[in-house]
Amino acid sequence: MRAVRRPSTSRPPSAVRRLSAYLLALCVAAGLLVVAGPGAGSAGAVSVCTGRPVRTVGFATGELRLYRTRSYACAVVVAKNPGPARPMSVSLQPRGGRAAVSAGRFGRQTAPVTVHALHRCVRAAATVSGRGTGTGWILC
Fold first, then answer.
1. Average pLDDT of adjacent 10-residue blocks, the chain of 140 residues
2. Which sign does the torsion angle of CA 75, 79, 82, 86 carry?
3. Distance CA 66, CA 29 (A)
């Protein structure tokens, strides 16, 4: 009768060990991102507009933030004192085009408005709780 040789189970091959260590590290990193979040520890608000910030216009109850990429302009309004939902609005209009408007009741900031503004000036207006501001033609 022949003896059946069984593989040794005391240690897995080194490739399997490396793979399991890599997967464990990946799971731990993913868990930390879920628990802490990508912006944990940052004091400022995370921007919802893409592009570089080009202008911030403050007023009594909030501020209007304008961002610009090569061909688009984006605006968002942030309340000075976040809290319960209150009426807010922001509009952004390219010269020669129609205004994009975001209005409603928000607690912290409005939804962003974006317009195509390649080689165009834009004007923006914003309100928070009935008080607001407007700009002339800017970003020309």
1. 62 62 53 41 62 96 96 96 96 96 96 95 96 95
2. negative
3. 34
The Cα 130–Cα 139 span in angstroms is: 26
The token pair at 111 is 């939804």
* C-alpha neighbours within 13 Å on the C-beta side of residue 107: 2
Q: Which residues of 59-86 are buried (b: 16+ CB within 10 A; e: fewer)?
A: bebbbbbbbbeeebbbbbbbbeeeeeeb
Please report the pLDDT score of residue 39 as a whole number. 38
For 51, residues 6+ apart whose C-beta sits below 8 A from its C-beta are 67, 68, 69, 72, 73, 74
Q: What are phi and psi of 23, to 5 degrees?
A: -65, -40
Q: What is the pLDDT of residue 125?
A: 97
Residue type present at position 97: G
